[in-house]
Amino acid sequence: MKQSSGMFVQQLNDARPSVRMQAIEAVGKLIQSKQLQRDVLKEVNNHVHTTYSFSPYQPAAAAFEAWKAGLGIVGAVDHDSMGGALEMLEASQAFGLGATVGFEVRTSLLDSPFANRKINNPDSEGIIYMCVHGVPRNAIAKTQDFLAPIRLERSKRNKKQTEQLNTLLAKTSLGPLDYDTDVVPLSLYNEGGTVTERHILSALVKKILKRTGKGEPFVRLLQTELEVSLTPQIQALLLDPTNIHYEYDALGVLKSELLNRFFIQPNPKESIPTTTVLAYADSIGAISAYAYLGDITFSVTADKRAEHFEDSFLDELIPYLAQIGFKAVTYMPPRNTKEQMARVQQLCRQHTLMQISGVDINSSRQTFNCPELLDPQARHLIDAAWALVAHEKLVDYNADWGLFSANNPLAFDKRIATYAALGQKMDCFHPESIIDLATKELR
Length: 443
Known about the structure:
By secondary structure, the protein is an alpha/beta fold. It has a domain at about 40-150 and about 270-440: TIM Barrel. Helices cover about 45% and strands about 10% of the residues. It has a seven-stranded mixed beta sheet with strand order 1-2-3-4-5-6-7. Strand 6 (about 330), helix 13 (about 340-350) and strand 7 (about 355) form a beta-alpha-beta unit. The model is unreliable at about 300-305 (pLDDT under 50).
């Protein structure tokens, strides 16, 4: 029999961890007893943000949304934090999902040949977004400590950015934002999460809505007092007071149109050297990945301007990244053209870089599904995702069993296919089952 899942959504997204953990256990029992059922698809998503950076979803809720969407794998990748990683692993196991955890961080290439170029970061030259995937469970607490100074520096900068924004707001009918009372409470900073620029903008959206409400007065204030340009599509969404994604749509356009007016560049304590993060990832058996952005002509999430990024110098960049120690490139099939993906794939093969996919979820409007992965050009990314899941479980058990371990008994060109098969054979309700499966393959 099928039972409605609606009654659990609120509990899985509750602000209290104890309530979420009880809901995880209850929902897990219903799934395992088949009282809750779903259609299982081939799709996966390794790059879901949670409330520990910026998202509508607590980790438990994100895992359940992925389960409802039919995904085989869900991955939590938060900015500068692994505060939600254990909850994501617990929820995924209870729901029978493959799971992987990691983090995303801004790092410095200011000492590289690309110091004066916008690479994959719309806000900064010489500073990149990179991901560290497949962090083993035994390294989560250590990694949270590694990221703590970055979170602290980012919070200091966010406070200054809020003050900078207030100089703009002083010219409007809106009063100032208070960082400690308006911005920080929207985050999980005090529980090990990160305050991001999106939290600042979310506080501003809430402030405007308190003044104007939804619809035409809100749009008018954006256009006249904040001088924000709206496309016809976005304007139509913001004129609709019944739009259930209203705050996220408003936040997206402010990120695209307003952020650059108060953004402050991160200092070296926040954007630490890329090589430092590469070395740390290697030390814990995780997989470092460059996050390919590509030139943008149209932003599907409406939070980025049309702009040129690394495509014009990609033939120089990818070899350099491989040379300094990156193990993988991660990219998003829904956001890149087939021509862009073909080029990235060729360069990854040429320089022996793993290919990882994942679509960052940070708005209620976004779907957890990624049907683009079913395209013949992208299907190999599904195997890579299962290999990533297997790697994470196996390197937690034995450091020599990491995908990129020099002591891995498998020939390198056999590893992804073998690990993908192990991940798909694993009982996701009992992920430790992969150890016995792997023992036969790796010993």
